[in-house]
From TrEMBL:
<dbReference type="Pfam" id="PF00590">
    <property type="entry name" value="TP_methylase"/>
</dbReference>
<keyword id="KW-0489">Methyltransferase</keyword>
<dbReference type="InterPro" id="IPR035996">
    <property type="entry name" value="4pyrrol_Methylase_sf"/>
</dbReference>
<dbReference type="InterPro" id="IPR006362">
    <property type="entry name" value="Cbl_synth_CobM/CibF"/>
</dbReference>
<dbReference type="InterPro" id="IPR050161">
    <property type="entry name" value="Siro_Cobalamin_biosynth"/>
</dbReference>
<protein>
    <submittedName>
        <fullName>Precorrin-4 C11-methyltransferase</fullName>
    </submittedName>
</protein>
<dbReference type="GO" id="GO:0009236">
    <property type="term" value="P:cobalamin biosynthetic process"/>
</dbReference>
<dbReference type="InterPro" id="IPR014777">
    <property type="entry name" value="4pyrrole_Mease_sub1"/>
</dbReference>
<dbReference type="InterPro" id="IPR014776">
    <property type="entry name" value="4pyrrole_Mease_sub2"/>
</dbReference>
<keyword id="KW-0169">Cobalamin biosynthesis</keyword>
<feature type="domain" description="Tetrapyrrole methylase">
    <location>
        <begin position="3"/>
        <end position="208"/>
    </location>
</feature>
<dbReference type="InterPro" id="IPR000878">
    <property type="entry name" value="4pyrrol_Mease"/>
</dbReference>
<keyword id="KW-0808">Transferase</keyword>
<dbReference type="GO" id="GO:0032259">
    <property type="term" value="P:methylation"/>
</dbReference>
<keyword id="KW-0949">S-adenosyl-L-methionine</keyword>
<comment type="pathway">
    <text>Cofactor biosynthesis; adenosylcobalamin biosynthesis.</text>
</comment>
<dbReference type="InterPro" id="IPR003043">
    <property type="entry name" value="Uropor_MeTrfase_CS"/>
</dbReference>
Length: 247
């Protein structure tokens, strides 16, 4: 059997990839994070498939389900929100599968930061304004951040920064970003990106915290910081330039 980690997208059920949908349809066992993965995706599961909501399971519980499927020779679709490459906790599952000798594959998905960019109608890499995107989070109840990956250090370049799992600490986040980015730096918060209840806030570092609190946003949101959010005066890219050699 094979375990396939499937990026289930940021929330909208139709933002699953064709490959991800086909994996779900071919897997007699489906493990999914019920608190984040849209239940509509389970409609792609084959008749009689075993469906396991992992929202309240421990790592040991999840691996036990995979081991049971392995013994029975049944492929597993393991659905994770967004894309498995960032903030998905797949690394620890892969480590256990390696130790158990169980094969696995990864099917990429649409990450939350891409859905946020779409909601904002913005490109996060704008010529002459910003060509680097930092994806990070902050420490709270989650796993501690490495000591050298603090916002003061990461913000020194003033690169576009996308923060996951951080909106509930918005006031502390602003205080840490202000010295590098300044009070007038554009900020956007996108909650529930791509879903019917999506909320988009646009502000600056000086007033984003008040907007977040007024909107009652406490989770499932990304915070985007950087000049690319409002940039309008910038050079055209070389990609489509008339001066570019196309031979």
């Amino acid at each position: 059997m094979t375990v396939r980690f499937v990026g289930a997208g940021p929330g909208a059920a139709d933002l699953i990839t064709v490959r991800g949908r086909d994996v779900i349809a071919a897997s007699p066992v489906c493990l999914y994070a019920g608190s984040l993965v849209p239940t509509e995706l389970l409609e792609h599961c084959p008749p009689g498939a075993k469906l396991v909501d992992t929202a309240k399971l421990t790592l040991d519980d999840i691996l036990a389900e995979m081991l049971d499927a392995h013994v029975a020779g049944l492929d597993v679709a393991r659905l994770h929100s967004g894309d498995p490459s960032v903030f998905s906790a797949v690394a620890e599952q892969m480590r256990r599968l390696d130790a158990a000798g169980i094969p696995y594959e990864v099917v990429p998905g649409v990450p939350a930061f891409a859905a946020a960019a779409a909601a904002l109608n913005r490109e996060f890499t704008v010529p002459g304004v910003g060509q680097t995107v930092v994806l990070t989070r902050t420490s709270a109840r989650a796993t501690p951040m490495p000591e050298h990956e603090n916002l003061a250090t990461l913000g020194q370049s003033r690169a576009t920064m996308v923060l996951h799992l951080a909106v509930n600490r918005i006031e502390e986040l602003v205080e840490e970003l202000l010295p590098n980015y300044g009070a007038d730096c554009p900020v956007a918060v996108v909650a529930n990106a791509s879903r019917a209840d999506e909320i988009v806030l646009r502000a600056t570092l000086s007033d984003i915290a008040a907007q977040v609190r007024a909107a009652g946003i406490v989770r499932t949101a990304v915070v985007v910081v950087g000049e690319v959010l409002t940039a309008s005066e910038f050079p055209d890219s070389h990609l489509y330039s008339a001066n570019r050699c196309r031979d």
